[in-house]
Amino acid sequence: MKVTEKDVAYVADLANLELTEKERSSMLRDLNSILDYIDRLNQLDTTDVSPMAQVSDQYGVDESKTGSARFLYSIREDILEGLRKSLPHDVALQNAPDSDGTFFKVPKVIER
Amino acid sequence: MDLNTLTIDAVRDAVQERRTTATALAEAFYSKIEKDDPQIGAYLTLSKERALEQAARMDSLAAKGEKLPPLGGVPVGIKDVMVTRGVRTTAGSKILANYVPPYDCTAVARMEAAGAVVLGKLNCDEFAMGSSTENSAWHPVHNPRDLSRVPGGSSGGSAAAVAADMAVATLGSDTGGSIRQPASFCGVVGLMPTYGRVSRYGLIAFASSLDHIGPLTKTVKDAAIVLQIIAGRDPMDSTSAEVPVPDYIAELEKPVAGLKLGVAKEYFGEGLDSEIRQSVEAAIQKLAKLGCEIVPVSLPHTEYAIPTYYIVATAEASSNLARFDGVRYGHRASDARTLSEMYRRTRDQGFGAEVKRRIMLGTYALSAGYYDAYYLKAQKVRTLLVRDFEEAFKKVDAIVTPTSPTAAFKLGEKTSDPLAMYLADIFTVTADLVGIPGISIPCGETKEKLPIGLQILGKHFDESTILRVAHAYEKAA
After folding, report:
1. Residue B381: closest C-alpha in chain A
2. Please, what CATH class does the domain formed by B3-252 belong to?
3. Is residue A75 assigned to a domain?
């Protein structure tokens, strides 16, 4: 077993998930089964292979440039309103579970 | 009008020539949905007001004798992971049960600007995480070809709506096969364009280095027409590529004779259903008869695609889904006393089991001490997968494979075993990791009359070639 009950509790904490007792035990079983399968990646020697975070680094960029200059097409001048006007206040708040009309409201932040 | 034979051009011409109206057509589709969708479950939300306003606009253009845009009056459906202004968008999740977006996804806006009539939002696996649409928080989708079976996923509603004539075309999203696999299970055409070909602005993010938007349609030509509309650079999405968009429809009719098509043995090994193998091999023979040269190629790292995918996709998802915290939109747990308790309970109540599983796996893979072993390792194997295709594409113009190792499975068959469900994507995930385009087209049926899909994979930004091959096969079949 790679993942222990303690790991599940720790990772749930990192992910801001409050798992029930039942969810924790099925999570333990599922994560171990999936990670066992994922282990086959270790059959490959990747010592000299560079990692790839995204494929757009390879295609559709200016090949004559290096580094972030390859993506110059996606950079634009700063403009006051941006590409789209900001949402009006009331529209931005319309989906809020709780608001006072000016701000999003949340429960107490400081615990004591 | 007979709804089941309608293609995009047929609809637009009929509305243009006043043989019908866009309004009558939209209403006919809504009647069809009302009658048939209770058994299928493809739609989550109908946008009647918006649809009928747009239909009226198209009808008044036609009445004035003005030329309709390419999708003028065409009834379409949109996967519920694309935001639509004023129309509830849930991503198949309880956490967004009442979310009404204040803006439109670029792909949807482009479809409407081209005259499409958006009938409503289509069911899918929660946050597009699944291969059967059984992970929808609302209800599963039944395959129109056999109601006891799944439609595939995660764009199961998008595929089923086209198959059941409840839309002429739909938009889906593909992160590991979610357009192509349901297209194959439901017997329709599904196209995943190159990474960066179509803007994802307004697509609720699952895995940002893998997410694509694309069409599901009845014909290859319709897929080309929709791609023409939605493709191209969008300043609102910095990952949309600055690569010119060709005339896909003109390219469609070019001859296929002389094209080199690769066949990789790694896609015909153990686990491939024998009926699927026979159909796909017969389809390859047919393409050979049309003058294509069939060339054996090797994609040696294929078996590592699923494990790579489930690290990369879940790691990105764990980050993307952090935004659902009960503060700005969506569900909020009502009984929490502190902010951190509110986050935890909101997410526990709002997310379903598969979404939690993937957030946990992704968070684990990115956590201190495991990052190198999992996330970095997967990124390196991703490079090896890209090299496999670079080598193969030195020899061939496109690669043909089965879309899925089996035909549609029964509802409930794989829900208790997450790993078995993941393996349903074994032939589709690689293209997402490599960023190349892929299309699934129908290529026959099993003895039980279940559709089989042929997948054609192409070079980056070469949708034209795979569409051309698919179109030639469709005409010949």
Report:
1. A46
2. alpha beta
3. no
What is the average per-residue pLDDT within A1-6? 88
Name the residue facing A17 among B304, B347, B419 (closest C-beta). Answer: B347
Residue of A nearest to B333 (CA): A97
Q: What secondary structure letter does DSSP report for B168?
A: S
A25 touches chain B (CB under 8 A): no
How far B145 CA lies from chain A's nearest CA (Å)? Answer: 32
Integer Cα distance of A90 and A111 in angstroms:
30
Q: How far is CA B218 from CA B128, B188, B189, in A?
A: 22, 5, 6
Judged by CB atoms closer than 8 Å, whether chains meet at B384 and A31 is answered as no
- Asked whether the predicted pLDDT for residue A60 surpasses 70, the reply is no
A-chain residues near B313 (CB < 8 A): none
Domain ranges, ordered by start, for chain B: 3-252
Nearest to B380 among A40, A49, A95 (CB): A49
Each residue of B252-275: b (16+ CB within 10 Å) or e? beeebeebebbbbebbbeeebeeb
Average of per-residue pLDDT across A2-26: 94
Does A38 fall in a domain? yes
pLDDT for the residue A110 = 79
Distance of CA A82 to the CA centre of its chain: 24
Contact status of A12 with chain B (Cβ, < 8 Å):
yes
Q: Is residue A73 part of a domain?
A: no
- Boundaries of domain holding A17: 5-43
Q: How confident is the model at residue A2 (pLDDT cuts 50, 70, 90)?
A: confident
Q: How far apart are CA A100 and CA B73, in angstroms?
A: 43
Positions of chain B with pLDDT under 70: 1
In the numeric block, which tokens belong to residue B414?
């794989």
Q: What stretches of A1-112 show up as alpha helix (H) in DSSP?
A: 5-14, 21-38, 89-93
Residue B419's pLDDT is: 87
ipTM of the complex: 0.91
Contacts of A39 in chain B (CB under 8 A): 307
Domain count, chain A: 1
Helices (H), B272-376: 274-289, 305-320, 339-350, 353-366
Residue A39 within a domain: yes
Binding-face residues of B in 239-278 toward A, CB within 8 A: 239, 241-243
| CATH, residue A37 | 1.10.20
Contacts 24+ apart (CB under 8 A), A60-66: A60/B196, A60/B241, A60/B242, A60/B243, A60/B460, A60/B461
pLDDT for the residue B132:
97
Distance CA B134, CA B141 (A): 7
**Nearest by Cα to B117 from B11, B270, B247, B267:** B11
| A41 has a pLDDT exceeding 90 | yes
Cβ-Cβ contacts under 8 Å for A103 (sequence gap 6 or more): none
Interface A–B counts its CB contacts (< 8 A) at 187
Mark which residues 45-104 of A lie under 8 Å from B by CB: 46, 49-56, 58-60, 71, 73-74, 76, 83-84, 87, 91-92, 94-98, 104
